[in-house]
C-alpha cells in the first residue's frame, strides 16, 4: 500500500496535481508486524476474499522483497549486513511514508501508550484482536491508558459473514476478543474465556483483580457497517471517468498518452477481484450494482468525525435508534449502550458469536452477592458483572459514504 501511495504522489507531482495525503506525509506511522496466529486456535482466513490476488503483485506494483529487513531482526547480530540488507536500510532511510519497527506490534502499542499522556491515544482495530489481547495481557494498566478502543467486528441482530452467527474478526480469534471485551467489565473475571488445560503453558495470564479503570470500547458491528457500501459503478466512475493524460513529443509527431493514477490502478486490481467474488456469492450483485461493504473505512470515519467518547453509564433512551444508519442523525449508540456483549469461544457452531441477553429478566439487586446462582448462570443479571460495550447503531449517513471516501482518497 505504501509503495502504491508513493508512486501515486510521484505521479501527481509529475502531472501538476495536488499531492494530498497531508497527514500521512506530516506524521509517519510506525508499522510493526503482529502475531501470526490466534491465541489458542488454528489460523482462520476469509479465503473467499483473500485466497488469490496474484494480479496485485505485478512487479511494477510491488516493492522489492528487501522490505522484510525493515521488520525482522538479523539472525546474527554484529555481522556485516548482506548487500540486500544494506540496500533495504538505505531505502528505509529515504522512505517518506512510514517507520518500520522490528519490535512486535503489541509491544509497539504499549510503547506508544507509555510515551503519551493517558486518554490521548485511540486504538482502532479492524482485524482480529490478537495483538490487543497480547498487549493487555503483558501490561494491563498501560493498555488501559488508551482513550478508546474502536473495534470493527461482531454481528448482533444480523447474520454473520463467515458463519451464520459470526463475523470474521470475532471468528478468527474469539479468545482474544473475549479477553479484550472483558476489560470493559467492572469485574473482568466474570466474562473471561474458559481456560484450556491442554494449553496451560501457552495461555495468557488472568488480569489483576483490582484494575484502575474499565476500558472504553466502541463496537461497530456488521449491523452498521454492512449498510455503508461502495458499488462497482461508483468506483469505476470515479477512477475512469476522466483519465489523466500527458503529451509526449517525438521527432515526427506529438502523441497524447494515457497515464492513469497508480493508486487507481492498484486498487482496481484488488477491488475488481472483490467485486467478482460478490458476483459469485450473492444474488443481486451483478455488474455495476455489485456493492462492497466498507467495514474498516467506517471505523476511521467514526474516529475522524465523532464527538469525544460518551461518559459511562450512558443515559437511558426510550427507544432504539432506527435500523437504518442513514438519516443524518450523527453517530448514535444503541439504546442499551453500554451493552453486555460477550464473545463465544468454545461453541462448535457458534464460535465467535456475539452473545447478548434477550430474555428480559429482572436485574439482581445491586446489594446482592455476586455468587453463582441457578437463576443467573453466567452472571448476566448482576450490575457488578458482564461487559460494558458501546455499540454504534447510527452514523451521519450511509447513502453518500462511498463517494465521500473516494473523494478523500483521490481528491
Automatic annotation (TrEMBL):
Keywords: Glycosidase, Hydrolase. InterPro entries: Inosine/uridine_hydrolase_dom, IUNH, Ribo_hydro-like. The keyword Transport does not apply. Gene3D superfamilies: Ribonucleoside hydrolase-like. SUPFAM superfamilies: Nucleoside hydrolase. GO terms for cellular component: cytosol. Belongs to the IUNH family. This is Inosine-uridine preferring nucleoside hydrolase. It comes from Ajellomyces capsulatus (Darling's disease fungus).
